[in-house]
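Protein Record: Sequence and Backbone Structure Tokens
======================================================

Structure line: whole-number tokens from a learned vocabulary of local backbone shapes, matched to residues.

Purpose: to set a sequence beside its fold so the mapping can be learned.

___
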Amino acid sequence: MTTNKGFTMIELIIAIVLLGIFASLGTGAMMSLFSKGFTFNIDRENLNSGAILIYNNMSRDMRNIRDPDSITIASGNRLAFYDIDNNLLTYFLSGNTLEKKIGVVDYPLDEHCQTLNFRYYSDTENLLASPRVGAVVSTDIRVIDFTAGLVFNYEHITINIRVRPNNVEE
């Protein structure tokens, strides 16, 4: 009596078909994971680009405040001042859009800004609850802290800027 060693043709075909089915199921899952990873990277890149734009604009503008008399509004969610080119600049949140106003024209900086907060400090680094501002009053602001929270598709970035304006020292 001889014993057959090996697989029959039907067993091989069934094994190949099963491998094909498992491979096709795994490919769909892998494509879904790659798609989610790609979307995550795009969302993160959009937030990073917005954060860099905000950081560059605001830190440059706040360093170029014209003089101690040029800050007109300094509240927790709005900052307005004249820069060294004599432009009136205002930063504020309108809905979820961080706006930069130059004169009377609004320029959106980022449309994913959920929070905006300004804090002002004296030359001794004391927090100023009510800073002096206005055209006839020299400001007591020496340092400006700015915090903004950006959110896009469940991705979060917080921007913190601490600026010492060049021209407000007395």
Remarks:
- The beta strands are 71-74, 78-82, 88-94, 97-102, 105-110, 113-121, 143-152, 155-163.
- DSSP finds one helix and eight strands in the chain.
